[in-house]
Amino acid sequence: MLRGRSLSVTSLSGLPRWEVEELPVEDLLLFEVAWEVTNKVGGIYTVIQTKAKTTADEWGDNYFLIGPYFEHNMKTQVERCEPINDAIRRAVDTMNKHGCQVYFGRWLIEGSPYVVLFDIGSSAWNLDRWKGDLWEACSVGIPYHDREANDMLIFGSLTAWFLKEVTDHADGKHVISQFHEWQAGTGLILSRARKLPIATIFTTHATLLGRYLCAANIDFYNHLDKFDIDKEAGERQIYHRYCMERASVHCAHVFTTVSEITAIEAEHMLKRKPDVVTPNGLSVKKFSAVHEFQNLHATYKARIQDFVRGHFYGHLDFDLEKTLFLFIAGRYEFSNKGADIFLEMHKSDVTVVVFFIMPAKTNNFNVETLKGQAVRKQLWDIAHSVKEKFGKKLYDALLRGEIPDMNNILDRDDVTVMKRAIFSTQRQSLPPVTTHNMIDDSTDPILSTIRRIGLFNNRTDRVKVILHPEFLSSTSPLLPMDYEEFVRGCHLGVFPSYYEPWGYTPAECTVMGIPSVTTNLSGFGCFMQEHVADPTAYGIYIVDRRFQSPDDSCNQLTQFLYGFCKQSRRQRIIQRNRTERLSDLLDWRYLGRYYQHARYLTLSRAFPDKFHMEPTSPPTTEGFKYPRPSSVPPSPSGSQVSSPQSSDVEDEEDERYNEEEEAERDRLNIKSPLSLGRVPRGKKKLHGEYKN
Questions:
Q1: Distance between CA 509 and CA 491 in Å, rounded?
Q2: How far is CA 236 from CA 131, 222, 245, in A?
Q3: Cα dist. 250→163, 185, 189, 192, 196 in Å?
């Protein structure tokens, strides 16, 4: 029996140890299969990209990613090289000799993992034969008009072929393959049908049918046990995709998903309870200076203020230093992402600018928006020109030993230029609510809701709205900022999602020290409820969208935002410090232990005579929570979030708050990251050392 070294994990303070055995990675090959390897489509790309370094550090040259080949991605993200593993080299050569186009190299991200990429188009001539193979394996047929499903069948068939070639020459090494989502699932189905000697894991990040049902505004979570699954999938013309997904789930040795809420969904939708929940993490980088992230917030907030000055020119009758910036970002799913209830709470006593960063169909920038930025720049240039002339005259007068006459230091031309600049800021129309010309303006759900509730950026509106229907980019002529820079410059991210299997947007906010709103229907929200005794004190506002009505959820969100807007600047700084400290919980070095548990479990099921795992529970955090910060005054949780803090309470918190003491207490509550396995084949080479 092949066994690794004993590994004791004390995952969290005060908990019983989780005893497993360290994986003998030098005797294993690990493959992760996903359509989003080097191919950015959605959140799975973020999962794989951010996890790559931790996994590559653990597995070294025995870790490989499998994905589709796209020429542009290959040229910009992958450095081609020759496989050093004999089994991999033989598999690539064999498939290329049979007319496939298989590419091998290193993905140019942190960790530089090996990637194997299949050209789908070059193997499309095999489609009919592979459709027959899938039918024989699981009696699932794919209609000819579903281009995406056909591409996934080709991808899965190539994956199964590749794994067959690898296992034929693995030289005693055992193979683990993890397949992400239904797009990669056919590779798993065919591998099991052909009885390949591999240990398989299937991970669902969101069920197909669940996403469709939630998009239809159905009361999904209260009717999970009442859906006629086959009927619902058939009516939405995704029955064959659903069958591919469900077959993948039931063929896998181990089934995992990313959150407890998705585990409940998967058990009802896919008829199998997940074996392990593997929360999504991020690659967390800590600044050497503790408060550097606060400095970045100030820097990028100033750049957002510049954009706001231009967008609201002529109507800039509010103090930007006392204005809060809130945002919601993600796929344009109006209800699933919570944009509906976000808009419904539009009452505020302080000025709030709300950004919607959600890509939609547009045909160009809004002319009025571009004009606003041009006017702002013109005023800036005029102010600098006048300032230089003023400064020179002042300097000359002081050199002569005179105090200049302030009435004469600016001549008539200077005054005329300034008057013309002031006149240029006058506008007859209101500041636009969108930065682009929308193609479906009349039916767009965000714009329709804005019209219904009358948020048109009037002077009297304390909540201003800006819809930016395009991903942010530092090369944009309008708002030249990357997404990370923009997030750091905002005060609060608002993501009251109804359907969010994990929720990377609030997780990214947390890592950057920006408070956020999430829900108990998102994986991230459930994860934080489990780990943090008082999430609100740490800047994580969790709206209950599962056990109360939409109106009550909207009222709760309003209370959260009202309380946040009433905070003083110092209270927001304290809260950002606490938020940033939670980033340790989201580090892959901590969350990777869940993946390790899933891998050992699948080995023990696929090769029970060679790997043995005592019946243990997966790593757990039950009973553990980040404690309530001692500087937060004791009060009933309900009243704390529903009303702003009084000045007396603010003074009390300021007196109690000690950043170093709180930070040290929080550091003690999460132990050092899990010690990962040995890196095989000696020291891992750095990118650039491979000269093939």
A1: 10
A2: 22, 21, 15
A3: 19, 11, 9, 11, 16
pTM of the entire predicted model: 0.83
DSSP assignments along 87-124, one per residue: HHHHHHHHHHHTT--EEEEEESSTT--EEEEE-TGGGG
**What's the pLDDT tens digit per position in 619-666?**
654 444 666 776 665 433 443 443 344 444 455 555 566 777 777 777
Supply angle C-alpha 518, 519, 523, rounded to 5.
90
CB atoms within 10 A of CB 455: 17
Q: In this predicted structure, what is the pLDDT of residue 1?
A: 45
Phi–psi pair at 276, nearest 5 degrees:
-140, 140
Question: How is residue 645 annotated by DSSP?
Answer: P
Contact 340, 334 (CB under 8 A): yes
**Which amino acid is it at 298?**
A
Tally Cβ neighbours within 10 Å of residue 476.
15
Expressed in angstroms, the distance from the first to the final Cα of the chain is 38
Nearest Cα neighbor of 218 from 501, 550, 502 is 550
Quick one: which of 336, 329, 618, 622 has its CA closest to 501?
A: 336
Angle at 478 between CA 354 and CA 491, to 5 degrees: 30
The maximal CA–CA distance of the chain, rounded, in angstroms, is 98
What is the per-residue pLDDT for 440? 87
Q: From 567, 597, 411, 406, select the one nearest 11 (Cα to Cα).
A: 597
Region for 513 from its dihedrals, namely left if φ exceeds 0, alpha if ψ lies in -120 to 50, beta otherwise: left
Q: How far apart are CA 230 and CA 215, in angstroms?
A: 18
Name the pLDDT band for 273 (thresholds 50, 70, 90): very high
For 172-228, the pLDDT digits (tens) are 899 999 999 999 999 999 999 999 999 999 999 999 999 999 888 788 998 899 999
Position 669 scores a pLDDT of 62
Q: What is the pLDDT of residue 590?
A: 87
Please count the CA atoms within 13 angstroms of the CA of 596 that sit on its side-chain side.
27
What per-residue confidence (pLDDT) applies to 290? Answer: 65
Element holding 130 (H helix, E strand):
helix 127-138
Residue listed under structure tokens 């140019």: 108
Q: Is 626 helix (H, G, I), strand (E, B) or coil?
A: strand
**Amino acid at site 276:** V
> 3-state class of 353 per DSSP?
strand
Token pair of 537 as six digits: 């004190």
What is the Cα–Cα distance from 324 to 341, expressed in whole angstroms?
19
Q: How far apart are CA 406 and CA 228, in angstroms?
A: 81
Give the DSSP H/E element, type plus range, for residue 184.
helix 181-193
DSSP string, 269-337: HTS---SEE----B-----SSTTHHHHHHHHHHHHHHHHHHHHTTT---S-GGG-EEEEEESSS-TTTT
Query: From edge to edge, which strands make up the β-sheet containing 463-468?
Result: 463-468, 352-357, 324-329, 492-494, 516-519, 540-543
Q: Strands 28-33, 63-68: parallel, antiparallel or unpaired by DSSP?
A: parallel
Q: In the chain, what are the helix, strand and coil shares in percent, each to the nearest 5?
A: 45, 15, 40
pLDDT digits (tens, 9 = 90+) for 145-183: 999 999 999 999 999 999 999 999 998 899 999 999 999
Helices (H), 441-587: 445-453, 483-489, 504-511, 523-531, 550-565, 569-581
**167-168-171 Cα angle (round to 5):** 75
| Nearest partner of 41 among 151, 183, 160, 143, judged by Cα | 183
